[in-house]
Design a protein that fits this description.
The complex is a heterodimer of chains A (116) and B (111). Chain A is mainly beta and 116 residues long. Chain A has strands at 4-7, 10-13, 19-25, 31-37, 43-50, 53-57, 64-70, 73-78, 87-94, 106-107, 111-115. In chain A, the strands form two sheets. In chain A, strands 2, 4, 5, 6, 9, 10 and 11 form a seven-stranded mixed sheet that branches. In chain A, strands 1-3-8-7 form a four-stranded antiparallel sheet, with no helix packed on it. The termini of chain A are far apart. With 111 residues, chain B is an all-beta fold. In chain B, strands 2, 4, 5, 9, 10 and 11 form a six-stranded mixed sheet that branches. In chain B, strands 1-3-8-7-6 form a five-stranded antiparallel sheet, with no helix packed on it. At the A-B interface, strand 5 and strand 10 of A face strand 4, strand 5, strand 9 and strand 10 of B.
């Protein structure tokens, strides 16, 4: 059973398009995250949601809009894609409550986005 | 601002060798530190999590230590195997659901 799944695995699109990436976790976790891993392999947090509520928005352009329809899902919609958006986007989840003590994070396989 | 640095950036060792990966962080006010493994084209797998009150954690051939006051952690891998080849990432949890990652150490174990 896949704990954290993402779709699609690969995404190739033209500049200016709008695209979405979906994430689902079946671990019963309260907290979900989106990370971006750039070409230099640096992993940076973008968003964090706890029980469907936005906790962290790490100075991400407002072209990126996360949506959490329920605790098990956190989707990422990107408007007006730019060349610099090309990266690998990882979804993760953890059992953290609102206290946020830092439980182990479980990562999805990543979505490789290439903007042409 | 918390920064996490990992040294070396890359490491190549013969099979069977014991090795140490280093991680340093600039702000000692952390909740915990985690070591992850990332295989090419894959997601991250958590290896060990050390709470700020702990000094070390062990899992099989892996041992991670934490010296919070000096801002250092090490990951010790005993009797390395080709299957250990991967990128190893260190991450500190600073509270408020925020995790800061290092750039990773790419390990290659030669058969």
């Amino acid at each position: 059973d896949t704990a954290v799944s993402q779709t699609p695995k690969y995404l190739v699109t033209q500049m200016g398009n709008d695209k979405s990436i979906k994430c689902e976790q079946n671990l019963g976790h309260d907290t979900m995250y989106w990370y971006k891993q750039d070409s230099k392999k640096f992993l940076k947090i973008m968003f964090s949601y706890n029980n469907k509520e936005l906790i962290i928005n790490e100075t991400v352009p407002n072209r990126f809009s996360p949506k959490s329809p329920d605790k098990a899902h956190l989707n990422l919609h990107i408007n007006s894609l730019e060349l610099g958006d090309s990266a690998v986007y990882f979804c993760a989840s953890s059992q953290d409550s609102l206290a946020g003590a830092g439980e182990t994070q479980y990562f999805g396989p990543g979505t490789r986005l290439l903007v042409l | 601002k918390q920064e996490v640095t990992q040294i070396p950036a890359a490491l190549s060792v013969p099979e069977g060798e014991n090795l140490v990966l280093n991680c340093s962080f600039t702000d000692s006010a952390i909740y915990n530190l985690q070591w992850f493994r990332q295989d090419p084209g894959k997601g991250l797998t958590s290896l060990l999590l050390i709470q700020s009150s702990q000094r070390e954690q062990t899992s099989g051939r892996l041992n991670a230590s934490l010296d919070k006051s000096s801002g250092r952690s090490t990951l010790y891998i005993a009797a390395s195997q080709p299957g250990d080849s991967a990128t190893y990432l260190c991450a500190v949890f600073t509270g408020g659901f925020k995790t800061i990652f290092g750039a990773g150490t790419r390990l290659f174990v030669k058969a």
